[in-house]
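Record 1 of the preview.
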Amino acid sequence: MSTLTGIGAAPGVAVGPAILIRELPKPERKTVPPSAMAAEKERLAAALRRVRTELTDLQSRISPELQGVIRAQLLIMDDPELIDAIESGLSDGKNAEWAVEEAADGFVRAISALNNEYLRERANDVRDFARRLLAALMHLPLPAIRPPTAGIVIAKDLTPSDTAGMDVTKVLGFATELGGPTSHSAIMARAAGLPAIVGVSGLTEAVNDGDIVVLNAETGEVIVNPSAAERAAYEAKAEQNRIWFGKRQQDARLPAESVDGRRVELAANIGGPHDVSAALQWGAEGVGLFRTEFLYMRQSGLPDEEEQFVAYKTVAEQFKPHPVVIRTLDIGGDKELPYLPMPAEQNPFLGYRAIRLCLDRQDLFKTQLRAILRASAFGNVKIMFPMVSTLDELRRAKRALRESADELGMAELPETGIMVEVPATALLADAFAAEVDFFSIGSNDLIQYTMAADRGNQAVRHLYRHLEPAVLRLIARVIEAAHRAGIPVGMCGEMAGDPQSIPLLFGFGLEKFSMSAAALPQARELIRSLSYEDCRKLADRALACREYAEVAELVSNGCASG
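->
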């Protein structure tokens, strides 16, 4: 028996035989003489054709919510910068395998160096494409994760297309040496209720095909060939996990309604069509935040109107008749696009970002607005502007929306709202409420701007707290202003899914809580245990507090009905 440790990426326990996914053999690197160059270029072209056929076939066989994964691969194939880099390697006399490896490695290094976890994870898309192309060049099949019997997948890494093509009915869980909690495989595991552990050093060397493996994602442990007693104990825990997951799935169909009959809406925050499956599975009543910047981050160039339209339409159709709130491009701060040069700033969180950038770049802004407007014909789409800090900004954004609709010949506009994430906007909430259809409080930025504390700076991280009295008073002010104006108000920051904060927000009168799909079950369970009247009294007491410690002590007592 041996025990390895990694990072739990999806909760739960699983026991079963190992299904070892082997890596492709290392491709040969050699110099090609000028006389053979034409043949080498044709060999590359044939491999590209094979890859396109494989991807198109895979896309036709998988669920709609996973098709975005394959679209990302197809987009990479059409990236002229990457293809040019490969062809440049060929021109230097390198064989196709060498040229592909070198070009892909360069792209991966560039993406991985960016100060953005999501983008770094997206380097997997480039690795995935390169692996598939190398397999085609070497005339080797890629391992399909469709085992004849149930087991635990063990791999160096799982690429996005591996994940998309995986037969989840035969997979009990998986562990990988590489990857992170935001990888495609981790997201899929959480949606399917499969335990997953990533970052397990030496995994594929320590595990043989058929070994009995225990995954304990709670501790991040991978136990290889446990004793009979240990195996029995973990099998019992795995069964409890399956029962728990089944109950949570059943509960996902229940309304988020308190014991005294007050109901709220639970929605999901998503980054694209690939997040839809988990959101629907956990009972999301719509999308409270569609982070459209992730569509831009996944590519090497600006997505055109048609690409954006397809993504928005896909999500709108799958959630119909529930609302899908699409936030316009929120780039800047910690979110950068390598192909969209931005001026160097001493404090980018307070600089040229989000609506400020879009109002300046009307070409970029209106392309996105037209795509959203077109998608609105296929579902209940709402538009939300981020980082609005003045009424003038709001009015200019609405004017751009009206002009975009006129270009499309559309008379009616979807409902339009703003993110309330700047203290200036919160303080003028009554004025903004008169000019929008809804509010969504962006707690992440609202907290850091109110407390003047960068949430990514460990030295001041202690000031970035949901329960700070100043933050609570601003949130209560925004909710009150929305209610006076008769418009709905929600929250789409991390605070909306925080169990400590939910009773207070509920007591303030928040109507819509939008969060990651993984947080929905706990939030629903909590709200169904609460008394609104008790939470309202708790919220009033919290607003009278002057220090964080006072609020923390209050909420520690809770406000559940006895």
